[in-house]
Write a structure and sequence with these properties.
Length: 466
């Protein structure tokens, strides 16, 4: 049984391994002497090799503790950012090499079982997802920056195959535990940076002509929005694990770390999506008539209050004190209009995956930081045109149908969170925790075969962990 103590050991081991891996990289990024680094590493190299061999053997033997620790450290290394970089700077450095190495491990782990599955028992929706990713990879060949776009597209395939590996070769719970442990590890490191090194751990934003430090947390993530999205997803995974694993005690310390991280990012989109996901998890999934009635009544009351005092309330929750900030989705409406305007010029095949990074900042109606469509659906449409967009929508529809048809309603909350957040963020960034989370949800749905008893759902019982 994978207990809370095992989870703490897994997170601790992953943290130690992450520090050991990142320390030499940070040393080199700080322009320290590589020869001195080599002299320091030589004495401990044999010990590291022995531990790596032991860890690989335990993973091969199916030891869940080491699998979760391995998954958590890979997630951490993939998502962690530990130096400032301009949006336009996509040059190769040690951090990029580390990301590429992590994606290579994702592919090595996940590609063989994925190819075996496609050869033996391919599901239509699995084939469609592979086709959608293939179209995006092909589109990167005609993007303005082919090298970056190719890596960004390969990143999508790597995240999909890694999630496939965890779900299909291990099990659903191990897959969710690995991402949950990675989220806690990233959130804890981000909080440490936020308070210990605010010049690095806090977001910078333009105030007129000046770039100033704000109170929003970025931590070890690439942006405050990425940090908030990851923290909210970690909280949702914790709730789903609590439902799936009957003896799993809710880890309040980890939940507090994730919640504080989410609050400090001030990512209201992630907060709203999380609330919607929790409603789906505890109201719709349990099919409770009373809860659904209360949820509908609360929604109606909120709509009435918002219609009467909308401007005042929206001004209160905005960062600038203006209701226009909320109604315009913090300027995203301008980005969406520009994306649709540009897409109309290349409607069939789009501009290539990752092209928004090069094209959108140069649009006269936009600004320098508009490096994506801030909407996953528009991002796919902009990159691959109608051709890729229709394949993506069909794959998504079949996957949602699988969840509803086969009774795996437990994942509705996860999908609700991701699909709602996709309306205001491009979740498929490089690197991004939500990319892993999105493809984890897809693979959880694709692996679902058993129809759960509706009476069990009505009683709010614990679902089997196949």
């Amino acid at each position: 049984m994978f207990t809370q103590r095992s989870m703490h050991r897994a997170i601790g081991s992953a943290a130690a391994l992450a520090i050991a891996t990142l320390a030499p990289v940070v040393w080199l990024l700080l322009d320290q002497d590589p020869a001195a680094l080599l002299l320091m590493l030589l004495p401990i190299a044999p010990l590291c090799v022995c531990f790596a061999v032991y860890m690989i053997r335990r993973i091969a033997a199916g030891d869940r503790f080491f699998i979760v620790a391995m998954g958590a450290i890979l997630v951490f290394l993939y998502c962690a950012n530990f130096r400032f970089r301009e949006f336009e700077d996509k040059s190769l450095d040690f951090q990029v090499v580390l990301k590429l190495a992590t994606i290579a491990i994702f592919l090595l782990l996940g590609l063989p079982p994925l190819l075996r599955t496609l050869r033996t028992s391919a599901q239509p929706d699995l084939v469609l997802w592979c086709a959608a990713l293939g179209i995006l990879m092909a589109s990167s060949t005609y993007a303005p920056n082919v090298i970056y776009s190719s890596v960004a597209a390969l990143n999508l395939l790597g995240c999909f195959t890694f999630a496939f590996y965890l779900v299909r070769t291990q099990d659903r719970d191990t897959a969710m535990l690995a991402l949950y442990a990675g989220a806690v590890l990233l959130a804890a490191a981000s909080l440490l940076l936020y308070f210990a090194a605010p010049s690095f751990g806090r977001m910078y934003d333009w105030r007129g002509e000046d770039l100033v430090q704000t109170a929003r947390l970025t931590g070890i993530f690439t942006s405050a929005n990425n940090a908030g999205s990851a923290a909210a997803l970690g909280l949702l995974l914790a709730l789903i694990l609590r439902r799936r694993l009957g003896r799993w005690r809710f880890d309040w310390l980890a939940a507090l770390i994730l919640a504080v991280c989410l609050a400090l990012t001030n990512n209201k989109g992630a907060m709203i999506a999380l609330a919607f996901g929790v409603i789906c998890l505890y109201v719709i999934e349990r099919r409770s008539g009373l809860r659904i009635t209360l949820a509908v009544a609360a929604s109606a009351a909120a709509a009435l209050i918002l219609s009467a005092y909308g401007d005042i309330l929206l001004a209160l929750i905005s960062r600038s004190g203006s209701s226009t900030e909320v109604t315009s989705a913090t300027g995203r409406d301008r980005i969406w209009a520009a994306v649709l305007e540009l897409w109309a010029k290349e409607p069939i095949f789009g501009y290539g995956w990752g092209a928004s990074l090069s094209i959108l900042p140069n649009h006269p109606a936009l600004f320098r930081a508009a490096t994506s469509a801030h909407n996953l659906y528009l991002e796919v449409l902009f990159a691959s045109g109608l051709f890729g967009y229709l394949v993506f929508l069909l794959a998504l529809a079949l996957t949602l149908g699988r969840i509803l048809r086969r009774g795996a309603a437990l994942y509705l909350g996860l999908f609700a969170y991701l699909l709602l957040l996709s309306c205001s963020e491009n979740l498929w960034q490089f690197p991004s925790f939500t990319t892993l989370g999105f493809f984890l949800a897809i693979n959880l749905a694709l692996a679902e075969r058993k129809v759960f008893s509706s009476s069990l759902a009505l009683r709010g019982g614990v679902l089997p962990a196949h």
